């Protein structure tokens, strides 16, 4: 499930309190006392946490998820819808969720305390191909040659994800998503930004930026430039390790099947939060 036994026990304690808080705030006008009635197939908070973590890790169908826990597929679907926001609340209380917007230098320093280098990259996740041609063309990624959803993320030297943009269609360019997030101008000049060739022009927005040199047909790279590019790529590999850590979960690597709005954004947020929690406990 992406967590050790010790990490699972630590997260379970906070998950229990967040579950009670969430149920209390969303009970409506019910008069029955909390905890009354028949006990379900997921009686303890640990059972509920294992249920939702297994769903994110393996991303099974509701039929298989229900079979593993002795539930009907409709009941498994209801539990997933209930426990996803509880897990997000738990990770938020653990202060491991990445920032979704950074509007000032103070917010940047809060998301990246004491950082000297940040690493920027974009990542995509596959989605089912829409029947509508217009929507399919908007989601089509020429790089992956399939329909995808894309985000831009920023990490520090420890591979911790400190910023995660909102999910957009795979057709959009990485640099365009970064400009839309409007985060570069809030990065202090003392912080070095490392990016790949997909972010050409970022050095005009932030002078303390290191980008690999890009060859053209008429101006090939010299041996010194190739050596420099190799050095930059070796340091920038940190953000690739963070992306690999997020994609340990099957909900990020398998084609998205859920139809709920913004569920792909929820998946990548929870994946990044679990990765940060794993790094903090490591």
UniProtKB/TrEMBL annotation:
Organism encoding this protein: Candidatus Regiella insecticola
Start-end of Basic residues biased regions: 131-146
Record carries keyword Metal-binding: yes
Keywords: Metal-binding
Protein origin, superkingdom: Bacteria
Sample GO molecular function, one term: metal ion binding
Region annotation (Disordered) ranges: 127-146
Membrane-traversing stretches: none
Record's protein name: Transposase
Record Pfam families: DDE_Tnp_4, HTH_Tnp_4
Requisite cofactors: a divalent metal cation
Domain Transposase Helix-turn-helix: 44-88
InterPro entries, per the entry: HARBI1_dom, Transposase_HTH_dom
Domain DDE Tnp4, residue spans: 120-274
């Amino acid at each position: 499930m992406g967590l050790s036994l010790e990490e699972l026990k630590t997260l379970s304690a906070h998950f229990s309190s967040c579950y009670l808080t969430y149920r209390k705030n969303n009970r409506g006008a019910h008069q029955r006392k909390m905890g009354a009635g028949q006990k379900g197939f997921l009686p303890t908070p640990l059972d509920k946490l294992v249920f939702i973590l297994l769903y994110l890790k393996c991303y099974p169908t509701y039929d298989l998820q229900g079979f593993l826990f002795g539930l009907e597929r409709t009941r498994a679907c209801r539990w997933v819808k209930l426990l996803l926001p509880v897990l997000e609340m738990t990770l938020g209380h653990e202060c491991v969720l990445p920032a979704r917007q950074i509007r000032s230098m103070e917010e940047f320093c809060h998301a990246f305390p004491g950082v000297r280098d940040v690493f920027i990259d974009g990542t995509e996740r596959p989605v089912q191909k829409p029947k509508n041609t217009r929507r399919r063309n908007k989601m089509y990624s020429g790089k992956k040659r399939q329909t995808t959803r894309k985000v831009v993320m920023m990490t520090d030297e420890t591979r911790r994800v400190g910023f995660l943009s909102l999910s957009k269609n795979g057709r959009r360019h990485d640099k365009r998503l970064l400009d839309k997030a409007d985060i570069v101008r809030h990065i202090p000049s003392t912080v070095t930004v490392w990016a790949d060739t997909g972010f050409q022009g970022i050095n005009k927005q932030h002078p303390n930026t290191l980008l690999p040199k890009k060859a053209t047909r008429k101006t090939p790279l010299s041996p010194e430039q190739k050596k420099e590019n190799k050095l930059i790529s070796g340091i920038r590999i940190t953000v690739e390790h963070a992306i690999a850590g997020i994609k340990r979960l099957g909900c990020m690597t398998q084609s998205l099947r859920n139809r709920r709005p913004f569920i792909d954004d929820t998946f990548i947020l929870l994946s990044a939060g679990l990765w940060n929690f794993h790094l903090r406990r490591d």
